[in-house]
Amino acid sequence: MNLRDVLLMRIAQNGPISLADYMAECLLHPTHGYYTCHMPFGVEGDFITAPEVSQMFGELIGLCLAQCWMEQGRPQQFTLAELGPGRGTLMADALRATRGIDGFHAAARITLIEASPRLKVLQQQMLSDYEIDTLGSVTDLPDRPLFAIANEFFDALPIRQFSRSETNWRETQVGAQNDQLAMGYGPELPQPALAYRLAETKPGDVVEYSPAAAPVIHEVGGRINRHGGAALIIDYGAWRSLGDTFQAVRAHQPADPLVDPGQADLTAHVDFEALAEAAPCAHTRLTPQGVFLERLGITQRAQSLAEHLSGPALETHIAGHRRLTHPDEMGNLFKVMGLFPNDGPPPPGLEK
Ligand code: SAH
Question: Residue 334 forms beta bridges with which residues?
Fold first, then answer.
């Protein structure tokens, strides 16, 4: 039985499911889920993420977190964590770039938070030179200073989606029509969690929120506030989500999210305001990825790497720099928000 049949059977027995349930099944079903079964990244995968574009991305993130660690008095025994590390490329680049920082690796407990058994294996291989802990959930993070990165993690968390009427909301659901999966709407109901959106939306508007995101931020931000640390959250999205951003990507092309469930990557834009509101620590302003990387010195790093390159390798390198930073590419679509202790400085490259 494929995932479509599994879902059609569930819907026939229990009725339509929310978009959040649909996303969760498609992405992480134990035997049919996209992250469970596929190799999502790279030219032969379905999409390319920033750490796969250029080593400079992970290097600068690593140096940024190491700078935070130094500014906070070099705490001994801290967690260096990545949420949703994919192939492990970002962490590998971050570790290589910070090798020379006195005491940083010795004090770091490298910790990956990953739900996919298949990706866990790849991460172990990529980081085989290091001792790493892998956790299934942020709730298992130890109580100590936490320096963390999440790149394209929050966009993979399931969302609920609502269309506004006068004062109520109808939830987008996945049901069945003529033996096919079909989108529909639930009944019109009040949604207390969306009351704050009534002032600035109008009937017909679509809003989304991720029920899983706030608990993750609560765990990460709570440790940062209690024990020190910082988190860099990088994703596409905006300060406040508006409109339907639910999308499927397969083989680098937009796809129909209801066709072949489990075979395409499903994401939604991140509502950074909701993350900031859930954080029990201080947060920075939202900063475009291109601006953040420029402030961290990506151009100097690009020039120094370019000295050793020529021909097609140099062209790929220049294109990678442009892709990460240019406003027409990832530079503006992707945003960065930092979390830091209430009484501490914001991470380098970001502002309060
Ligand atoms: N950060 C990587 C990968 C992004 S893809 C990069 O930039 O290349 C999203 C990652 O989050 C994958 O590793 C996926 O398996 C993981 N993931 C998705 N949902 C998760 C969840 N609920 N808990 C833990 N990891 C999750």
Answer: 236
Residue 122, in any domain of the structure: yes
State pLDDT tens for residues 87-113.
Answer: 999 999 999 999 999 999 999 999 999
Q: Is residue 321 part of a domain?
A: no
Residue 248 parent element (H or E): strand 247-250
Dump pLDDT digits (tens) for 140-176: 999 999 999 999 999 999 999 999 999 999 999 999 9
Beta bridge partner(s), residue 98: none
Of 37, 83, 149, 153, which is best to mutate to test ligand 1, by the most ligand atoms within 8 angstroms of its C-beta? 153
What's the CATH code of the domain at 144? 3.40.50.150
Tokens, residue 201: 């939306």
What is the total count of domains within the chain? 1
pTM (whole model) above 0.90: yes
Whose Cα sits closest to atom 2 in ligand 1?
Answer: 86
Nearest ligand 1 atom to alpha carbon 84: 11
- Determine if ligand 1 sits within 6 Å of the CB of residue 119: yes
Pocket test for ligand 1, best of 54, 116, 127 (most atoms within 8 A of CB): 116
3-state secondary structure of 347: coil
Ligand 1 nearest atom to the CA of residue 155, by list position: 9
Residue 351's alpha-carbon distances to 25, 226, 297, in angstroms, are 37, 21, 16
Residue nearest to atom 18 of ligand 1 (CA): 156
Q: Which domain holds residue 59?
A: 3-159+211-289+330-340
